[in-house]
Design a protein that fits this description.
globular, mainly alpha
Amino acid sequence: MTDKKTAAGHLSALITIFIWGTTFVSTKVLLKDFMPIEILIFRFMIGYITLLIVYPHCIKTLNVKQELYFVAAGLFGVTLYFLLENIALTYTLASNVGVIISIAPFFTAIFAHLFLDCEKLTLRFFIGFTVAIMGIILIGFNENFVLKLNPLGYILAALAAIVWAVYSVLMRKISEFHYNTIGCTRKVFFYGLLFMIPAIFMFNFKLGLYRFTSLPNLFNILYLGFGASALCFVTWNWSVKILGAVKTSVYIYIVPVITIVASATMLHEKISAVAMVGIILTLAGLFISEGEQIVKLKRKMYDTRIRYKMRDSNR
């Protein structure tokens, strides 16, 4: 793999996370008029149709085992993850959900270690994990003591992080089949929408298209459908294909920062001192666990830039 392609993979992951970090705010706005399942159906229908237009070709798997990977990816990466995330947003602040979701790299590393023959887990990894969990618990205490909100919100967000880790590993396995990334993403969306059908009846789904006459609702659903779904799932899946599940998941560390800034700016959410300590502990735990990996990534990118400069100077 060329350094140029690797650098593109890092840039793709960074752009993806920047957009995803703001989706908590868009979803929070839509939850005023829509139920979680309604937001999911609309955004992924928009995403699916967009990808169908861009890549109207069918991905034909070689066997049932390959097809089951797509089925599982649709269940975990689309249906379960976003149901958990969206329901969590009805119980807690968008900024807190963004922070808690950032534990996903821990679980990604664990699942990758078990199923992808990755590096062995170290003591440093478990120390970082413990510190991050302490931060998440502190965020929960902040809600109960200061805001008096149901702790169910951050529990659901933590479950969403675990589900996303499973999805990342599944997409790494799917990338080994060497199918078109856009086609693979659309196939995952198809199964995700399929698994949402029972939820339509369970959660009393309503079409109610008149709600999109509100410009904020229309803008946010299009942002989630075109940007966060159609575009970002393709760029994320491509990054996983190029960099691997663990290296790509490192960029999830940036989500809390983006979400907190967006929440404070657009939703005027207040972050208490207790929550700030929890956020710091969560991020500290992440960097303790994966700090060595981050340094390696930075060093590799720096070496790549040096080689390009030397190559240009010798011409």
